[in-house]
Design a protein that fits this description.
Blueprint: E1 15-22, E2 25-32, E3 35-37, E4 49-57, E5 60-64, E6 67-71, E7 76-80, E8 86-89, E9 92-100, H1 108-116, H2 126-138, H3 144-161, H4 168-190, H5 199-206, H6 210-216, H7 223-242, H8 248-254, H9 260-271, H10 275-284, H11 290-299
Antiparallel strand pairs: 1-2, 2-9, 3-8, 4-7, 4-9, 5-6, 5-8
Length: about 300
């Protein structure tokens, strides 16, 4: 793919962005000059998110699997944060929706399929794009009560509007499993610091067999991998938020890592950096809110 010389790497560009927090879902609305982008070399906790982009104006050309995909205005595109992508974005006005993986367990396989495809967005019903376009004018003046309602509505809209051509069987299965998946997610999230959190305990909570439990978490690589990933993400967040008020060893122990060496090794394998690197990041980034910290880390 030939990248235009309009914004060579390191040249910089002008842009503005404003973030909104709809519970676990984050929304960023912004405008920018044209720019090019290339793969990031450093992994981070932001890889636990999918990024759904709606370009209200402008267009983008992205290289996926050696193919150049052009995204026109008013079309949706979904990618995983951290994907090694390169491309060009024209002067644009856009809305970006950040979906946490842990919040959409039942749709993980489908969203990953869309993110890995050369299409990226046709798996969404057009109604979702119309809904998000309307949010652009509503969000700035929304009351706290309206924001809470939009958070619930947005999550429901996403679940209702995700489809994949040729995979209707998968989409028919997702609603049937949604209740158990949500219970499982909430149980794991509420028991990350419990030594009794295990596949056996989770199976008993859901009243399912080991085979059924594996099927529920198949898209996540199994129960143990899901629990480990959740604990590492919780540790990452705790280190980032605690500054120097708590030791890394104490945080690791809180989330079930008795051995510091094992924790550091698994942490590095997951995020590509040491726990101490995250602590230094927390020290250097001064923001007014947790959301601002997250937004800074995601866009850096």
């Amino acid at each position: 793919m030939h990248l235009p010389a309009v914004a060579l790497r390191g040249a910089g560009f002008v842009g503005t962005a404003k973030g909104y927090s709809l519970g676990t879902i984050k929304i960023v609305i912004g405008q920018s000059d044209a720019f090019v982008f290339e793969p990031r070399s450093k992994k981070g906790a932001d890889e636990d998110f999918w990024k759904v982009t709606l370009r209200l104006t402008g267009f983008a050309e992205i290289e996926v699997d050696g193919k150049t995909v052009r995204q026109e205005a008013n079309a949706l595109d979904v990618r995983r944060l951290g994907q090694p992508l390169r491309g060009y974005v024209s002067a644009n006005h856009s809305l970006s929706l950040y979906l946490p993986r842990l919040q959409f367990v039942g749709l993980a396989r489908t969203l990953d399929q869309l993110a890995n495809s050369s299409h990226g967005g046709p798996g969404f019903h057009p109604l979702l794009a119309h809904y998000l376009s309307a949010m652009v004018s509503v969000l700035p003046s929304a009351s706290p009560q309206e924001v809470d309602l939009m958070a619930e509505t947005t999550q429901s809209m996403i679940r209702a509007c995700v489809t994949t051509s040729g995979s209707m069987g998968l989409m028919e299965e997702a609603p049937l499993m949604a209740a158990r998946l949500e219970i499982a997610r909430q149980y794991v999230s509420s028991n990350l610091n419990s030594p009794d959190l295990s596949s056996k305990a989770l199976g008993a909570k859901l009243n399912v067999s080991r085979r059924q439990l594996y099927k529920i978490f198949e898209a996540e690589g199994g129960v143990e991998k899901y629990v480990l990933s959740s604990r590492l993400k919780a540790s990452y967040d705790a280190i980032l938020k605690s500054g120097h008020r708590r030791t890394i060893a104490a945080i690791a122990e809180e989330f079930g890592f008795a051995d510091s060496a094992t924790f550091s090794r698994q942490f590095r394998a997951r995020f590509g950096c040491c726990p101490s690197d995250v602590r230094m990041q927390a020290k250097s980034v001064e923001t007014d809110s947790d959301f601002a910290t997250w937004l800074f880390a995601t866009s850096s």
